[in-house]
Amino acid sequence: MLKVLKFGGTSVGTLDRIQNVAEIIKKIKNDGHDVIAVVSAMSGETNKLIEYAHTFAKKPTSHELDMLLSSGERVTSALLSIALNEQGYIATSMSGREAGIVTDNSHTKARIEHIDTKNMTYAIKEGKVVIVAGFQGVTKDGRISTLGRGGSDLTAVAIAGAIKADVCEIYTDVDGIYTTDPRIEPKAKKLDMISYDEMLELASLGAKVLQNRSVEMAKKLNVNLVSRSSFTPEVEGTLITKEENIMEKPLVSGIALDRNQIRVGMYKVRDIPGIAATIFTALASADINVDMIVQTVAVDGRTDLDFTIPTDDLETCEGVMKIFEEDVENIDYNEDVCKVSVVGVGMKSHTGVAAKAFSAMAKENINIRIISTSEIKISMIISQKYAELAVRSLHDAYNLDK
Ligand code: ADP
Ligand code: ASP
Ligand code: MG
Questions:
Q1: In 10 A of CB 24, how many CB atoms?
Q2: Would residue 193 count as lying in a domain?
Q3: Measured in angstroms, how far is the CA atom of residue 146 from the centroid of ligand 2?
């Protein structure tokens, strides 16, 4: 079998942890499999580099950031390769460029356009273990790009899809996908399987165990994706697969929490046709991912508009809002919010799922500020201080520990 393995920041967080990863790879290699391993930077490294950059500039240019941040994963790929070579295995490390990962020009959040797998294929044919620096590629103009936070997951899935690997195993510090973050709710249960769509919702709604774009790519390319732990590699993880492969469809599969949300309140906006279109087009052009939107009933030709954006986009959003100073009486930004979400494909065919979520919040006296729903999810914006309580109450309300 050809296996693509990915080791996240905590899995390569120290030199001992890198040796542990070498042991995992050696075992898989000894079992007769071919291995491409994608590695992240050592945990905390990417944040440290970002901080360094910000000591010199509030807004460093995105190309310099990519040059800087991509270095973290190159360090671990080379170290892991050196370790394996010393222990009698032939390994070769590759940067994103050497691995043939070509992206568009959106530095710091580049999209993979295609992967030229010839270097990797050649090395595998020679019996080598290929170690790829995750999270990065090269633009068509030959400049280094990075794929957005958590992007090593995407590197692994994209390579697995392009090279038609038999499986893509994402090794992290938990042994699979749980009904919610086990660090928040210790009673969370590990799932044997979860559908791509549910995993995509959970990931997009804050469960950082897998990067959402990697799940989207896995679904598109039909990659056999497994989430498991490098701390307990003998434990089987969770398979992320097609909905039809899952016999028993739970009503609710999981609860997600996203603390990186800001609620933008636009008060007394001029209520004229096209105003919402103008505002949200301007936000979209600035690449701001607006999530939940509510508009209240207009009074005296004025209406209130509330929406949420990711914390990182605050400054850009403030810039965009300047255009609308004439159209609105007041704008405020509330950072003290978070989003809790209930996800499950079973919701499609059952009633009363949302009511249960609202009752769980009511029981704890938690005020819901904004609600949004889709076929398979219910999201609520609440005050940050209730984040963990809300997750646990929802987990309880749907009996997810049973
Ligand atoms: P890595 O550094 O390996 O990429 P991450 O920190 O990005 O790892 O993701 C792993 C973390 O995701 C876990 O430590 C866990 O706290 C968190 N997490 C959030 N939601 C879930 C969930 N539903 N199941 C498992 N882990 C989750
Ligand atoms: N090192 C990058 C980050 O911290 C990419 C990754 O770990 O997936 O976001
Ligand atoms: Mg991650």
A1: 19
A2: no
A3: 10
- Please state the three-class secondary structure of 329-379 as a single string: EEEEEEEEEEEEEEECHHHHHCCCHHHHHHHHHHHCCCCCCEEEEECCEEE
Q: What's the pLDDT tens digit per position in 348-390?
A: 888 889 999 999 999 999 999 999 999 999 999 999 999 999 9
Q: Which domain holds residue 357?
A: 255-397
Quick count: other Cβ atoms within 10 Å of Cβ 173? 17
Instruction: For residues 7 and 145, state if they share a domain.
Output: yes
Which CATH number belongs to the domain containing residue 76 in this structure? 3.40.1160.10
β partners of residue 240:
194, 225
Question: Does pTM top 0.85 for this prediction?
Answer: yes
Query: Which atom of ligand 2 is nearest the CA belonging to 8?
Result: 7
pLDDT of residue 356: 95
Vertex 338: Cα angle to 332 and 343 (nearest 5):
135
Domain count, the chain: 2
Q: Is 254 in the pocket of ligand 1 (CB under 6 A)?
A: yes
In-domain check, residue 201 = no
**Ligand 1 lined by 5 (C-beta under 6 Å):** no
CA-based angle 140:132:71, to the nearest 5? 75
In a domain, 101, yes or no: yes
